[in-house]
Specification:
This protein is 31% helix and 20% strand. It is an alpha/beta fold and 469 residues long. A nine-stranded mixed sheet has the order 9-8-7-10-1-11-12-2-13, sandwiched between helices. Strands 15-16-17-18 form a four-stranded antiparallel sheet. It has a two-stranded parallel sheet with strand order 3-14. Helix 7 (190-207) packs parallel to helix 9 (247-272) and helix 8 packs across helix 9 (247-272). The longest helix is centred in the middle third of the chain and has 26 residues, at 247-272. The relative contact order is 0.17.
Length: 469
C-alpha cells in the first residue's frame, strides 16, 4: 500500500512538473499568406499598400530582406514548410500535372519530371510518413491547430492526420469550400472564419494552460480577386486617376487590407488574453506574387509566381517575440522555408524528431542576437513544372530547372536544354545581366555544389519522354 502511494505521489509530482514546464514554454502563432509578394507590404517598401498591423510586427520584431520560398508555387512550398525538407525529399513536386492533359506540351518535352507523391485512395499530397512540425510540437506537449489553406492532400492526407489536434481546409474567399466537409455558413469571407476559429483555439489552449502551435494559412491574397466591398470602394476612391495602378491591383490592395485586418485581430486576441509576451509570431508567404498589370507587388525584382526569378521566390519574413527578438532589427542573410521548422523548435527549445532529416537551419542564434550569419553555404531549388508549350516561340512557359544560390551568385540549370545561366546577385539583385560566359569558374563551382546537393537529397535524374515528337 505504501509502495502504491509512493508511485502515485511520484506520478503526481512528475505531472505537475511537466505541466509547469509546458505553461512556461512560448506559444507559436505562424501566419502564412498566400501569393503575397516581396513588395506587397507597406513596411517592405510599397507605399500604396495599407498594412498597419503587419507593419507593427515588422517594427516590433526582426525582418529578413533576403527571404525565399522553397518553390514558386503553393503545394511544394507548403510541403517544405510543414515537413522541413527540400522538394526531392517530400516529393510534392507540383500543384498539378497539367502537362499530362496538354498534348502539345507533352509532345515537346524532352524529359518526364519525377512523379508527385501519390497515396492510394487519397490522391496526391504529402506522405503521412513525414514528421510535420505540428507532430513535433504535439509530441512535446503542445496543442496544435490549422485552419485555412492546406493544399497537401485530402482524405487520409488531411490536416488532422498530419499532427494537428483540430482544423480543416478552407479554399476560396466567398462561398469557400471545406475539406473535410463542414456544415457551416460558407457565404462568409473565409479569412474571417479562419481568424475566428484560430482565436477560439487560442482561448481553449489558454483555458487548459497548454502551450499552442497555431498554423494560420490564409487563402489571401490568392485568386479569385474577391475583396470585401468596403475595402474595394476605399481603394477605388483613394487611387482614382492613378494610371499606374490597374483594376486588378486595386482589388489586390483591398485583399491585402483584409489580410492585415485578420492579422490585427489575432494580435489583439493575444493581448486580450495576456499572451503577447509568451507568444512567438512568424509571418511569411508561400511564394512570390502572381502577375498583375504593372507587377507592383514584385518590384523591383523580375519574375512572378511560377518562375524562379527573384520575384517568383522572394517573400517577406517577420519574426516577433517580445523582449527576446530585438524590435526593429533586420537581417540580410538568405533564408528559406525549410528554416522555419528547426527555427521555431530552436526558439521554443522543443526537441527535434529523432531519425528524421531537417534540411533547414535553426535561425534562432540570429533572431536572439547571438550571431549575424547563417552556417550553410548554399540554397537550392528544384522546380519541375512543365507548362504551356509555345510552338511559335519554341519554348515552354515554365519547365524543369534546378537553381542554386551560393557566394552571392545564382545559377540556373535548364534541364531541357542543358544550359546554365548565372547572375551575380551581389551587384545585380534584379537579374538584369546574365554573366555565365564571363565567369566560367563560378559556373563549375556551383555545378559541383549542385551535384552534391542532388546526391544528398535523393534527386531523381531526368527520364527520356517516350511521347516526345
Amino acid at each position: 500500500m505504501l509502495m502504491n502511494n509512493f508511485f502515485f505521489i511520484l506520478a503526481l509530482v512528475s505531472s505537475l512538473v511537466l505541466n509547469a514546464q509546458d505553461s512556461n514554454r512560448p506559444n507559436v502563432l505562424f501566419i502564412l499568406a498566400d501569393d503575397l509578394g516581396i513588395n506587397a507590404l507597406n513596411s517592405y517598401g510599397n507605399e500604396l499598400v495599407e498594412s498597419p498591423n503587419i507593419d507593427q510586427l515588422f517594427d516590433e520584431g526582426m525582418h529578413f530582406t533576403n527571404g525565399y520560398s522553397n518553390d514558386p508555387t503553393c503545394a511544394p512550398s507548403r510541403a517544405s514548410i510543414l515537413s522541413g525538407q527540400y522538394v526531392p525529399r517530400h516529393k510534392v513536386y507540383r500543384v498539378a500535372d497539367r502537362y499530362k492533359t496538354d498534348k502539345k506540351t507533352l509532345e515537346a518535352m524532352k524529359y518526364l519530371p519525377p512523379e508527385v507523391n501519390r497515396v492510394q485512395g487519397s490522391g496526391t499530397g504529402m506522405s503521412l510518413e513525414k514528421i510535420t512540425i505540428a507532430e513535433a510540437f504535439k509530441a512535446n506537449g503542445y496543442a496544435t491547430a490549422a485552419y485555412g489553406k492546406w493544399h497537401l492532400g485530402k482524405n487520409d492526407l488531411q490536416i488532422t492526420n498530419q499532427g494537428f489536434d483540430e482544423g480543416f481546409e478552407m479554399t476560396g474567399h466567398y462561398d469557400f469550400k471545406t475539406s473535410p466537409h463542414q456544415d457551416m455558413d460558407k457565404s462568409r469571407f473565409s479569412a474571417d472564419v479562419i481568424t475566428e476559429k484560430t482565436i477560439e483555439f487560442i482561448k481553449e489552449s489558454k483555458a487548459k494552460d497548454q502551450p499552442f502551435f497555431a498554423y494560420v494559412p490564409f487563402y489571401l491574397v490568392h485568386k479569385p480577386l474577391e475583396p470585401k466591398a468596403e475595402y474595394l470602394k476605399h481603394f477605388k476612391g483613394k487611387l482614382k486617376g492613378n494610371k499606374g495602378v490597374g483594376p486588378d491591383e486595386i482589388k489586390v490592395l483591398a485583399m491585402i487590407k483584409s489580410l492585415d485586418e485578420s492579422v490585427g485581430q489575432l494580435i489583439q486576441a493575444l493581448k486580450d488574453l495576456n499572451l503577447e509576451d509568451d507568444t512567438i509570431i512568424v509571418f511569411t508567404s508561400d511564394n512570390g506574387h502572381y502577375k498583375t498589370e504593372s507587377d507592383i507587388f514584385n518590384q523591383p525584382y523580375r519574375g512572378v509566381k511560377g518562375e524562379t526569378l527573384e520575384g517568383g521566390i522572394r517573400v517577406p519574413y517577420i519574426f516577433k517575440w517580445k523582449d527576446n527578438i530585438e524590435a526593429g532589427s533586420s537581417s540580410k542573410e538568405p533564408i528559406i522555408h525549410v528554416d522555419i521548422y528547426p527555427t521555431i523548435l530552436g526558439l521554443t527549445q522543443t526537441n527535434q524528431p529523432q531519425n528524421y532529416i531537417l534540411d533547414g537551419e535553426d535561425l534562432s542564434p540570429i533572431l536572439l542576437g547571438e550571431s549575424t550569419e547563417t552556417v550553410r553555404d548554399a540554397l537550392v531549388w528544384e522546380y519541375t513544372n512543365y507548362a504551356r508549350w509555345n510552338e511559335k516561340k519554341q519554348e515552354f512557359a515554365s519547365s524543369w530547372v534546378n537553381v542554386i544560390q551560393m557566394d552571392g551568385f545564382k545559377m540556373t540549370e535548364d534541364v531541357e536544354s542543358g544550359n546554365y545561366y548565372l547572375y551575380n546577385l551581389t551587384t545585380d539583385p534584379y537579374e538584369t545581366k546574365e554573366v555565365a560566359a564571363q565567369i566560367p569558374k563560378q559556373i563549375e563551382k556551383l555545378k559541383n555544389r549542385l551535384a552534391q546537393w542532388k546526391n544528398e537529397v535523393g534527386y531523381e535524374e531526368p527520364q527520356l519522354n517516350p511521347d516526345r515528337k
